[in-house]
């Protein structure tokens, strides 16, 4: 019995055996897909709660990372200022050169004198002179500062230099509310970063008084700084069951299409000997045209390979 089976796997016949096995796999995938869909529906309530919780934690962790980085840069600048400016040979030029270091190009650094005047700044001025006082948030607490074109993640701290109290204002662009089509423009968008990270659309409100969305399709997350003060709010579309089902069905279809394509390739190898037995070249040519036309139709109908590229 085994010898008889092996006889079918010799020569070009083995390709037809592979094609048959592939057809079985295609049929099996078609049977498994509805089972996976039903399983997804049954567990969706628990799953969507877990997904929302994971997104919430991801949003908070991402904001915390950016806040920690801003605080670290602030401490670094304060240390450099103390090292260079506390000495008796203090010069104003040292202050200018320090805040304009190349490593701080992505930040807005402003040094404010005790009289409330900005005495040093770099290439980005986030907070204008008239907008500095009164402080909206306590000293040394990270918050958002909104300007017409850009929202900044900002922290304000104090420094004692030569017995006087100076203020350090450090800001980093967090969301640009405009776009330019040139090589010098650099896109900065926290909402876009969130959307790309979690595959759902985010709206971010850089306002401590923003209210949660009343849209039942959305879930809102309060943005807190490390002091547990509300500094904003973000809303995102909840994961959709219909989307998840579509993803399962689409993945199943792609697997079937890939198997079908492989099956057609092996079918071509299997028919090679039959093609060679045709005596007339004209018949061979016509058969070849018909075969490749049918092959092209099948690939077009299944959307291969564009369906995989998309």
Structure in words:
- The longest helix is centred in the first third of the chain and has 42 residues, at 44-85.
- The strands form two sheets. The protein has a five-stranded antiparallel sheet. It has a three-stranded antiparallel sheet with strand order 6-8-7, covered by helices on one side.
- 16% of the residues are buried.
- The two termini are 47 Å apart.
- α2 packs antiparallel against α6 and α3 runs antiparallel to α4.
- The chain is α+β, with helices and mostly antiparallel strands.
- The protein has a domain at 50-237.
- Helices cover 50% and strands 18% of the residues.
- A hairpin with a 2-residue loop joins β4 and β5.
- It has nine helices and eight strands.
Helix and strand topology:
Elements: H1 2-7, H2 13-42, H3 44-85, H4 92-99, E1 108-112, E2 118-121, E3 143-146, E4 150-161, E5 164-176, H5 190-198, E6 202-205, E7 218-224, E8 230-237, H6 241-270, H7 272-276, H8 281-302, H9 306-309
Antiparallel strand pairs: 1-2, 1-5, 3-4, 4-5, 6-8, 7-8
Helix pairs in contact: 2-6, 3-4
Indicate the proportion of strand residues.
15-25%
Largest sheet: 5 strands, antiparallel
Instruction: Estimate the mean pLDDT confidence.
Output: 86
| Lateral arrangement of strands in the main beta sheet | 2-1-5-4-3
Report the radius of gyration as a whole number of Å.
32 Å
**Total DSSP E strands:** 8
The chain-level structural class is: alpha+beta
Question: How far apart are the termini?
Answer: 47 Å
Output the helix-strand order: HHHHEEEEEHEEEHHHH
Total count of helical runs of at least 4 residues: 9
Helix content: 40-55%
Uncertain runs are none
Global geometry: elongated
């Amino acid at each position: 019995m085994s010898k008889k089976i092996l006889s079918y796997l010799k020569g070009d016949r083995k390709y037809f055996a592979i094609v048959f096995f592939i057809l079985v796999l295609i049929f099996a995938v078609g049977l498994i897909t509805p089972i996976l869909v039903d399983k997804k529906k049954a567990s969706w309530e628990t799953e969507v709660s877990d997904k929302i919780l994971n997104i919430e934690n991801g949003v908070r962790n991402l904001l915390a990372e950016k806040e920690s980085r801003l605080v670290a840069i602030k401490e670094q600048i304060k240390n450099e200022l103390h090292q260079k400016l506390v000495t008796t040979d203090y010069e104003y030029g040292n202050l200018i050169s320090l805040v304009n270091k190349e490593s701080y190009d992505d930040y807005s650094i402003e040094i404010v004198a005790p009289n409330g005047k900005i005495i040093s700044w770099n290439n980005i001025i986030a907070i204008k002179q008239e907008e500095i006082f009164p402080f909206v948030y306590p000293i040394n607490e990270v918050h958002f500062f909104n300007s017409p074109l850009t929202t900044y993640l900002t922290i304000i701290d104090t420094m004692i230099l030569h017995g006087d109290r100076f203020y350090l204002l450090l800001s980093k662009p967090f969301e640009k509310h405009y776009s330019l089509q040139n090589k010098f423009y650099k896109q900065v968008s926290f909402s876009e970063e969130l959307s790309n990270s979690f595959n759902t659309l985010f709206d971010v409100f850089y306002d401590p008084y923003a209210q949660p969305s009343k849209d039942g399709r959305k879930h809102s997350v309060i943005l807190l700084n490390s002091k547990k003060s509300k500094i904003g709010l973000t809303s995102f579309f909840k994961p959709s069951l219909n989307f998840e089902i579509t993803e399962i069905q689409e993945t199943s279809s792609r697997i079937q299409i890939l198997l079908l394509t492989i099956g057609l390739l092996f079918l071509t190898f299997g028919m090679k000997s039959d093609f060679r037995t045709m005596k007339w070249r004209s018949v061979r040519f016509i058969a070849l045209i018909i075969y490749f036309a049918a092959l092209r139709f099948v690939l077009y109908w299944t959307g291969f390979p564009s369906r995989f590229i998309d």
